[in-house]
Amino acid sequence: MTAKNDRRWNHNIHYHPRILHTVPDGARHALDVGCGEGMLARELRRAVPHVTGIDLHAPSIDQARAHPDDVDYLLGDVLTHPFEPASFDVVASVATLHHMDAATGLTRMRDLLRPGGVLAIVGLARSTMPGDLPRDLAGIVAGAFHRAAKGHWEHPSPTVWPPPVTYRQMRAVAAEILPGSRYRRHLLLRYSITWRKPQD
């Protein structure tokens, strides 16, 4: 990753280390769902020999392919691309799940994992007022401090706002489709889901 990338910051990049820390020992194949211009995919490539990034946004994929790396970038839809089932040791996704039906997306990512593989997601959900207001205000203040210190990089990919699913709904969907998964709500207006697929 270049020095320019090292200086980038936004709410999504802030949580990349959470994804990277979940990579299991011996992982050989990783998939970055909604890879955009490939920043997380390139970070994954430092730990995993074979990394595939997939995204529906052609300009972002063009930017990703312009980098001198050996990540396999695909223009396509993870829900319909003909990946072999159970073909990845790591499936990662940042700020992508709210672009699709949450249950459908989680099921697809689950099915692409090999037994023992790890699914790691950082996502956006919709706040419920007034209950989420104190947490959201704290996140806005913390985000402002981060931006003042680090700047803010605006990604080139399309955005969806507001997210269609609330934090509470997302927790329930994850619990249903990924039994035993770990769901966490984070300060900077994000949640994470981590799940290891049971061995056969």
UniProtKB/TrEMBL annotation:
Protein's UniProt keywords contain Transferase: yes
Q: Name one GO biological process term.
A: methylation
Q: Where is the Methyltransferase type domain?
A: 31-121
Q: Name one GO molecular function term.
A: S-adenosylmethionine-dependent methyltransferase activity
* Gene3D superfamilies per the UniProt record, alphabetical: Vaccinia Virus protein VP39
Q: Which UniProt keywords apply?
A: Methyltransferase, Transferase
Q: Which family does it belong to?
A: Belongs to the methyltransferase superfamily.
Question: What is this protein called in UniProt?
Answer: Methyltransferase type 11 domain-containing protein
- What is the species of this protein? Planomonospora parontospora
